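Shipment paperwork, digital attachment
Item: protein structure file
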Amino acid sequence: MNQRWTDVAALDAVPEDDVIGIEAGGRSLALYRVGGDLFATDNICTHGHARLCDGFLDGHEIECPLHQGKFDVRTGKAKCAPLVDDIRTYAVHIVDGRVLVDTGCRAAAAVPED
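Attachment content:
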């Protein structure tokens, strides 16, 4: 496993129950804070190429602002039409109040299917 931890933001810069767009490792990512936990995914919708950080976060689901498709931010799984392809997720780690994202590998999906 090739880890490339990148410091992307201060923990305080990510509001609770919200999403922000960031750049890390040459990638456009979305960083989510839900219930005190942090998640990172690709920022571009696999269907309409819209920025997910401009979408609506409801619990662990991000709704694309273009065609209202939803992804689970924990797993990247596409949850409804018109989406057919999942988004990539990334491991997140907090060190001394800083958010680090591992752009070298996909995060483990330890969340059961709904």
